[in-house]
Design a protein that fits this description.
256 residues, mainly beta, 4-stranded antiparallel β-sheet, 1 helix, 22 strands, 2% helix, globular
């Protein structure tokens, strides 16, 4: 949905991007660009990120060079609409202005060496990052599967196959150590006030979803591991507007 609720943008299986009037169900046409499996709308609904470019919906023209980054797996517009976050299969997350320019801070990096090094964490350092003593993190992949801004745009959280981490958008430096769950991590979300974040993943074929809430400043776990049924390999979770509740679930098994 566009932020004002007036329009719906759909991506067909062949990458065709179609626009629909949400009130009348009338087809408003399609964009010239082809998308991958996903497309993202800016907060004001004027721009979309698709085909690895920023696209002006009204003029149906690209406003950034492309592709901004190879093998993009995730993207997010900043809350003020001024920047774009892209995550790649090679573990690199980049912050762009909407014309495709790169700000001066370094990229946020889930490099392969760091991911492998953090799949086994010594017991004395496990308290802030490990869900259970002695567990081994599975699916140690550097591929960035999800990236999201905090509500004030000052932090981002990045998720690879086995690890998640909070970063400072101004400096590009890590805020927390890597946090882990004994599963394949898929997504993360900040609480509305930005003080906490939730990570969520799945263990298949056990059909079990796992989620946990962490302190955004330190990476310290704030809740026990939350377990739910997940028959689909891409579960998600998010906070309620007041930050008191979390909804978690998948496309097939429902929500809890």
């Amino acid at each position: 949905f566009s932020p004002d609720g007036r329009r719906v943008m759909l991506v067909d299986s062949d990458g065709t991007v179609r626009l629909w009037n949400a009130r009348t169900a009338e087809n408003e046409g399609q964009l010239k660009a082809k998308a991958g499996s996903q497309a993202w709308l800016s907060p004001d609904g004027r721009l979309a990120f698709l085909a690895a470019q920023v696209w002006d919906i009204e003029s149906d023209e690209a406003v950034s060079p492309g592709p901004l980054q190879p093998d993009i797996r995730s993207a997010a517009f900043s809350p003020d609409g001024g920047n774009l976050l892209t995550g790649s299969g090679n573990g690199t997350v980049r912050l762009w202005n909407l014309a495709g320019g790169v700000p001066p801070q370094p990229p946020f990096k889930h490099d392969e060496a760091s991911v492998v090094a953090h799949t086994t964490i010594s017991e004395e350092n496990a308290g802030a990052t490990r869900p259970d003593q002695g567990e081994q993190v599975i699916f140690p992949s550097a591929e960035v599967r999800h990236a999201a801004f905090s509500a004030d745009g000052r932090q981002v959280v990045t998720v690879s196959g086995g690890l998640a981490r909070v970063w400072d958008t101004a400096s590009g430096q890590a805020v927390t150590p890597y946090v882990t769950l004994n599963c394949s991590l898929e997504s993360a979300a900040f609480s509305p006030d930005g003080t906490r974040f939730v990570t969520v993943g799945s263990k298949l074929p056990e059909q079990e979803g796992l989620a946990r809430v962490w302190e955004a400043r330190t990476g310290r776990p704030l809740t026990p591991i939350i377990r739910f049924s997940a028959s689909w390999p891409e579960p998600s979770a998010g906070f309620s507007p007041d930050g008191r509740w979390i909804a978690s679930g998948d496309r097939v098994g429902g929500v809890c």
